[in-house]
Amino acid sequence: MAYEIPVTQARAELADLINRVVYGGERVVVTRHGKPLVALVSAADLERLEAPQEPPGDRVATSVSRVGDTTASAPREGHRFGIAAEHRGPNPS
Description:
The protein is an alpha+beta fold and 93 residues long. It has helices at residues 7-12, 14-24, 43-50, 56-65, 77-80; strands spanning 3-6, 28-32, 35-40.
């Protein structure tokens, strides 16, 4: 949870707030009229926030594509579970 402080108080305590963020590992949210305005985070936190992230959809597709062909290992499983279709790959025979 971040430490919240009004902007008027943050102005007077900026040096202390910077120390809390850098050395205390805190995150400080500066508010105006009770609403979040800006956040003070460490440079390390900022680097993590700005680092490119792999979209979740790509990871799922990669995992599924690695499963491989299951028809050879369990040819009758489709009938057992009531599955009407099967994947035959790029060259159906």
